[in-house]
Design brief:
2 domains, 4 strands, alpha+beta, Glutaredoxin, 44% helix
Length: 163
């Protein structure tokens, strides 16, 4: 059990990176050449968990993050001076949340910087040109699930079967 837990902890991040590499190379290239950064006052950034859809996030930081999350764009945070309006940096382009049609401008910037809206099936890497289930991203997902399950303790549901 402990070995499975250690393997899961040691391999999750490399496995996720390899899934991106093999399943969506265009996303990997965009992340490397045009990283997305939210520059905002940390005091105005809130945890955005809204399973019922009733919460309202109105700060400039929350608006910036919501626009990126709706487009499924990976981003990192960078602290800005207190009370400064949040900005989104896509590659070298800086976009303020006070810009008219902010969401549309961010979506256009992300598109211009080659962030794909979905993976191109013809770009999915197959090491030997064969079955993607054996050689590509699906095998990495299998190992992630395998390591995660091997970290689980034995079930105590039913008593052992004795003959």
């Amino acid at each position: 059990m402990l070995l499975g837990f250690f393997l899961a902890v040691a391999t999750y991040f490399p496995l996720f990176e390899s899934i991106t590499h093999f399943a969506n190379p265009a996303l990997e290239a965009a992340l490397a050449t045009s990283p997305v950064v939210v520059v905002a006052d940390p005091a105005e950034c809130h945890f955005q968990f809204n399973p019922l859809g009733t919460a309202k996030f109105t700060s400039s930081c929350d608006i910036a993050k919501a626009a990126l999350v709706n487009r499924s764009v990976n981003y990192r945070n960078e602290a800005a001076p207190p009370l400064a309006s949040a900005k989104v940096r896509v590659g070298g382009q800086l976009i303020s949340t006070t810009a008219p049609d902010f969401t549309k401008v961010v979506n256009n910037a992300v598109t211009v910087h080659s962030y794909p809206t979905k993976a191109d099936p013809s770009q999915i890497s197959r090491k030997d040109g064969g079955d993607v289930a054996r050689t590509g991203p699906y095998s990495r997902i299998f190992w992630m699930v395998h390591f995660g399950l091997s970290a689980q303790p034995p079930s105590r549901g039913a008593p052992p079967y004795n003959v």
